[in-house]
Design brief:
- The complex is a heterodimer of chains A (477) and B (481).
- Chain A is of the alpha+beta class.
- Chain A contains 15 helices and 17 strands.
- In chain A, helix 7 (322-334) crosses helix 9 (368-379), helix 12 packs across helix 14 (447-458) and helix 12 (421-431) packs across helix 15 (464-474).
- The mean pLDDT of chain A is 90.
- Chain B has helices at 3-7, 10-18, 24-36, 54-57, 98-105, 148-155, 172-178, 212-220, 256-259, 267-282, 298-313, 332-343, 346-359, 365-388, 411-415, 423-427, 455-469, 474-480; strands spanning 43-46, 68-71, 110-114, 161-166, 181-184, 204-209, 251-255, 286-290, 391-395, 431-439, 442-449.
- Classes of the chains: A alpha+beta (477), B alpha/beta (481).
- At the A-B interface, loops of A face helix 11 of B.
Chain lengths: 477, 481
């Protein structure tokens, strides 16, 4: 990928977690019996009219503000016309030339626009294949129809599959912090399409793009974009043009297949929705949305870095997963005798690795205060790192107070002359005179087996630094 | 039915019921029998029996149980609501339109559903999927449209009063051709919830009644903001029953653009119009020419905007969830095509095509976009006119009722029917049509249009004129029974 630069833009659909649908009073649901959350409006019955959900507008404005967008004082709903059984009115109410939000930025990526619309219903294809081809018949579940959606469109500012994946994680964290959506890709409350093109490195022009539909997990997004970049590169290298088309990524085979050809491109015949008045974002609405904004992940990472001295990488690792940063800050706050913030931050990944990488540590048996207590025991050299890991395992298994566990189990660090550590070091030197001689003559690499001996004898309770200090002292170094 | 009941206006019948001189059940049954024996094809559905209880009959409400005929396109729970279209044959909605519910609640029980041009597209009622309606003044002639069934039913005494909808003249023009009163309210005054939409930015519900007092009484219970219709607005005052008998100080503007040669007003209509103006002057009104420079373009703008909205509004009739479905298609597109090809009539198809074209990529600005600009200009014209005049007056229709089939092969000639009625809905303003007399034995309508929310003043002026004109519509009631 030296010769070509990928250019990637994302289009993200976010189902808002409002109480009711975008244009009617039906409850939002997931997994309920089909067609129980319906009414004349969301079934598109003759004569029914839409009414805008105020909470959806509020959430839309919150998202716009969180992404640094300009909020249109007066935006407009449009009808997007096309026929499909999952679209009961024969048009989707969406926004077109005057969206709720324009401009903005999240991380390194500029936001083109953010607008509100309604979700389609769900088509279920009955038959062995489970897909539209080969289905005996198709049935429609209107429970989802009319769910409020926010569409976020980025500028083409992403340049690798990995960057696209990372940015989507940041977006999801931001939306989760706002509390406006479940942002669960597996359940479709966060859906992502990617526009991908490649161009000769350094070129200012954009290549022909393809649209990758429904990259519905972070891995699919990554793998799909990567596969498409490779496919386009192979085409260009073979002297063939990239054709503008919509592609479906099959995560199992890793292949991309055209979804619909350009010839079938729709003319959606957008026009202003006459059943709705223009949407006025009043100063009161903007103030309410601004007041509802929590600290956002990007700002939180910056704060963890500047105020607490965490590395940029560690700060993002915590801040971009709200639950980790929340846990971290709870642990930090739990102990009046301040625990070292950097040391504490370094222990969060240890905990996450043990409880499962997607789990929320707040749901584990390890109270934030316990983790802080554990880290303090290490910092004060009252237990060794190895012991601390062992104590952490016990906390995860059955909770409790780390100090009590250390005392009860006699796991306290072995240190100082009267602890017998000197005698164990002496025994180690006696047991491996070759290594002892090598260390004495300046080969510090040989110290490993000697430290290892002491650790075995003390069951890991000795502090590594103190052991090597004692070894050198006894060897007269 | 006793002739006395038939000769009562709806307001008089309501008073008689309230005073204990007339039984609400008897009143309902009298009209139910007439509606059931309808030979004009004005009804598409008639109630089987009177409502069971006095409360259900409306006797305890302020409309005192005076039965109501409702244009087919208003959704009425459990009752066929087909909008005059075969594509909705047998469709019974699970809910009732707000305006109908308000009238039921006020004590006007549902008498029946009235025939109409399919999806309110037409000026003769010949576009109904359920056959044309006949004009009670002359059954060889059309009643006007699209609320032709409602107009004919009231004129013929098959219903004491009725409601309809007006998009480009669909209340006022049939009221004129049938010799009754019809009012199109200010856009937003009445909820559109439950009205099967033709053109959302123009459609308004309104009364069709025997006289202006009935019109005011019915309208009083129709207006009001509805949280289910975002475009509805609270009416700023109560609708009063008109009492005025003079027009002192009232300034009437006669727009040359609509009334002049371009409007194609036929001589008999012109004569009645001029006589009414003279009568207005004798009642104290001033009559002066006024300017509506863009009004001649209203028809062109209307026939882009209304079909454009209709093309989207009618997309939901796709055979998937309700109404007609042509089975046996191998694929989805064929099912859509067959269903819509057989469910829609020719005029509806014509307008869907027009509207789809007007909104198409590359044509939007030239057609729909331009039409919206013309619409703005027309609204400005009226605003300017209303700084000098209280009302703008025109003949409602350039012609009296024409013979069935006379204009069926010439859609453009048919569209010209709406020449004088289309500018008002484009401007969102109210207008009323009252019978001003007969021409060759057929009724002529006189239209007054006022600024937004001027309904009370419009009703007062119309009432004063009505008293002076003394129109007698009884021949239509006798002729149809």
């Amino acid at each position: 990928m030296n010769e070509y630069e990928p250019v990637i833009g994302l289009e993200i659909h976010v189902q808002l977690s409002t109480q009711t649908k975008m244009f009617c009073g039906c409850e939002l649901s997931f997994g309920d019996e089909p067609n129980v959350h319906t009414c004349p409006v969301c079934l598109g019955l003759p004569g029914a009219l839409p009414v805008v959900n105020a909470q959806a507008i509020h959430y839309g404005i919150m998202i716009g503000l969180a992404l640094g967008c300009e909020i249109a004082p007066r935006s407009q709903f449009h009808r997007k016309n096309y026929f499909y059984p999952d679209l009961p009115k024969g048009y989707q109410i969406s926004q077109y030339d005057v969206p709720l939000c324009r401009g903005g930025r999240l991380g390194d990526v500029r936001i083109h626009r953010v607008h509100l619309e309604e979700d389609a219903a769900k088509l279920v294809h009955v038959g062995e294949s489970g897909r539209i081809h080969g289905a005996d018949r198709s049935v429609v579940d209107f429970n989802r129809g009319g769910t409020p959606l926010v569409e976020i469109v980025t500028e083409p500012d992403l340049h690798s599959a990995e960057q696209a994946r990372e940015w989507l994680v940041l977006l999801r964290t931001t939306l989760r912090a706002l509390g406006v959506s479940d942002v669960d890709m597996s359940q479709g409350s966060l859906r992502c399409d990617a526009n991908v093109s490649i161009r000769p490195a350094g070129s200012g022009e954009l290549g022909t793009k393809t649209e990758l539909k429904n990259m519905n997990s972070f891995r699919f997004l990554h793998d799909g974009v990567l596969a498409e970049i490779e496919r386009q590169q192979a085409l260009l290298e073979a002297g063939e043009p990239v054709v503008q088309e919509t592609l479906h990524f099959d995560p199992v085979s890793g292949t991309l297949t055209p979804l619909r050809s350009k010839e079938e491109a729709h003319d959606y015949r957008y026009f202003p929705e006459p059943d709705l008045v223009p949407l006025e974002a009043t100063p009161e609405m903007l103030a309410a949305a601004r007041d509802a904004l929590p600290e956002l992940p990007a700002a939180r990472a910056a704060r963890l870095e500047s105020d607490l001295g965490l590395s940029a990488e560690r700060a993002r690792e915590l801040a971009f997963r709200t639950e980790l940063a929340d846990y971290y800050e709870a642990a930090l706050a739990s102990d009046g005798a301040a625990v070292d913030p950097i040391a504490l931050a370094n222990w969060i990944p240890q905990l996450v690795e043990r409880i499962g990488s997607d789990a929320d540590p707040a749901g584990s048996r390890v109270a934030p205060a316990s983790l802080a207590g554990l880290v303090k025991l290490v910092s004060e050299k009252r237990i060794s790192r190895d012991t601390a890991r062992e104590v952490l395992d016990r906390l995860i298994a059955s909770g409790g107070d780390p100090e009590e566990i250390v005392e009860r189990e006699g796991l306290g660090a072995v240190s100082g002359e009267d602890s017998g550590l000197g005698e164990i070091v002496a025994a180690a030197l006696a047991a491996d005179p070759v290594a002892a001689e090598q260390v004495r003559s300046g080969n510090m690499k040989a110290i490993g087996p000697l430290v290892g001996y002491v650790m075995r004898e003390t069951k890991g309770r000795a502090d590594g630094g103190e052991v090597s200090r004692l070894i050198r002292a006894q060897l007269g170094l | 039915m006793t002739t006395e009941i038939l000769e009562l206006t709806a307001a008089e019948a309501a008073t008689a019921v309230r005073d204990g001189q007339l039984d609400a059940g008897e009143l309902f049954e009298a009209y139910r029998e007439r509606a059931a024996a309808d030979t004009l094809n004005a009804f598409t559905w008639v109630a089987q029996a009177a409502p069971a209880s006095p409360r259900a009959a409306g006797a305890v409400g302020s409309l005192s149980g005076v039965p109501l005929a409702v244009k087919d396109l208003f959704c009425t729970e459990g009752v066929p609501s087909q909008a005059g279209s075969r594509i909705l044959k047998g469709y019974r909605p699970p809910y009732t339109a707000t305006v109908v519910q308000k009238l039921l609640d006020a004590g006007a029980p549902l008498l029946g559903k009235t025939n109409q041009d399919e999806f309110a597209m037409g000026s003769s009622n010949e576009n109904s999927g359920y056959g044309p309606v006949l004009n009670p003044w002359d059954t060889a002639r059309v009643p006007g449209g699209s609320s032709g069934g409602s107009a004919a039913a009231v004129a013929a005494g098959l219903a004491p009063w009725a409601i309809g909808t007006d998009t480009g003249g669909s209340i006022r023009q049939p009221a004129a051709l049938c010799g009754i009163v019809g009012l199109k309210p200010t856009y937003g005054a009445c909820s559109r919830y439950g009205m099967i939409a033709f053109a959302s930015s123009l459609d308004q519900a309104g009364p069709l009644t025997r006289d202006v007092t009935d019109c005011a009484l019915l309208l009083r219970h129709m207006v009001g903001q509805d949280h289910r219709d975002s475009t509805s607005i609270a009416f700023p005052e109560e609708i009063r029953l008109p009492e005025r008998g003079d027009l002192k100080g009232v300034r009437l503007g006669v727009p040359e653009e609509l009334v002049g040669a371009e409007g194609g007003v036929e001589p008999g209509v012109r004569k009645s119009f001029d006589a009414t103006l003279a009568l207005a002057e004798s009642l104290g009104a001033s009559v002066e020419p006024c300017r509506l420079p863009h009004a001649p373009h209203a028809l062109s703008a209307y026939y882009l905007i209304a079909p454009a909205e209709a093309s989207a509004n009618l997309a939901r009739f796709d055979g998937v969830r309700y109404g007609l479905r042509e089975d046996g298609a191998a694929d989805l597109t064929t099912m859509y095509t067959r269903t819509r090809a057989s469910g829609f009539g020719p005029e509806v198809k014509r307008r869907i095509m027009l509207g789809t074209y007007a909104l198409s990529s590359g044509y939007y600005d030239a057609y729909y976009g331009t039409a919206l600009k013309v619409r703005t200009k027309i609204a400005e014209d009226f605003r300017a006119a209303f700084t000098e005049f209280d009302f703008v007056v025109t003949p409602t229709s350039p012609w009296v009722a024409f013979e069935l089939g006379a204009k069926l092969d010439d859609p453009l000639a048919m569209y010209l029917n709406d020449f004088c009625t289309v500018p008002m809905p484009l401007a969102g303003i109210p207008a009323i049509s009252i019978p001003s007399g007969l021409s060759d034995g057929l009724p002529v309508g006189f239209q007054l249009a006022g600024p937004a929310f001027s309904e009370n003043r419009l009703l007062e002026a119309a009432h004063a004129l009505e008293q002076a004109i003394g129109f007698d519509g009884s021949r239509a009631r006798g002729g149809a029974a």
